[in-house]
Amino acid sequence: MTKPSKSRLGRRFIDFAAYVLIATLLGGALIWVAEQGNDNTPAQIGKWGGLLANTALLFGTFAGHYKQPWRNHIFWSAAALMLAVHLLGWVVILQRVEHWKSVWFLIMYPIETPVVIAVGERTVTQSTGKRRDP
Prior knowledge:
The radius of gyration is 18 Å and the shape is flat. The chain is mainly α. It is built from four helices and no strands.
């Protein structure tokens, strides 16, 4: 049996650290939601559930579109930054808008998707020096 290389161990450590970070963030989010009380009306569930579905669809499309640069740290840094901006923007909007229907996210999805894909293209092009293969 061969001994794992340092670079392989380093990648495993980074993967493990990312999993711990994701689990911590999700756990923190669940605790925060639980402490907010029982004011989860159907309108609130639709508003925040719509954000969850929109975000999953948008960034699921993004991750599926870019399978080649998955090991590129710059790519994932850009993806994390886009996700943070996306969520921060929507949280600010949804906290200030009283009546929001989940279906209204469908209007925003065609606007956000090209922006996210363009940022992904630019990131891949600048970090690798070549365009992504279709």
